Amino acid sequence: MDDLNRAGILEFTSGGLVIYPTETFYALGCLATIHPAVERIFAVKGRPTDKPLPLIVADWGMCERFLRMRPEEEELARKFWPGSLSIVVDVDPRVSTLARDLDGRSAVRMTPHVIAAELCRAAGAPLVSSSANRSGQPPVCVPGDLDPELVRQSGALVVDAQPWPAGGQPSTMVRVVARNAVRMVRVGAVSAEDISAAGFEVVSEYKIF
Questions:
Q1: Residue 98 needs a FRET pair 20 to 30 A away by CA distance; which of 4, 16, 35, 44 works?
Q2: Helix 114-123 vs helix 6-13: angle between axes, to the nearest 10 degrees?
């Protein structure tokens, strides 16, 4: 990742924003533990602050440090992570309140994208992973399609490196509501059939994020 040089990492870990590729689309992110940086993402995107921002983690070690998963949540995660399944789980209070709901939970996935994972690992904490577009606008898969005004206003470091995102559907978001029962918060890349095949019952949809 030539764009992610030492100076860029230092800026990023001190509160800067970054636009980076994920397995689905380009994301606008920051360290989830730096509240002012998370606030800037809401401002740049024009996103309502009552919609918490989703997160990515790099590996299981980061999960142990920042997530407070119940056994059934971890069981589901281990069947799909790394992958495009975001699970609503309790997170460490170091995570900004703007990336948590009123119950202290965040939608988290372990990204399978090599660059996103490397960036997250280098940062040493979960990253905000919101699509790099203004709210209501379509997400993008290549740097050339990024909104130049979004890039300018955010002041974000743009990681222009391949593999570029594959596009398609965004990550699926779920909440584990019982021992082997899952509610679909957002339908996406992982289908209800995939979740059922993993041994979890999919109950009625319930949108909170």
A1: 4
A2: 60
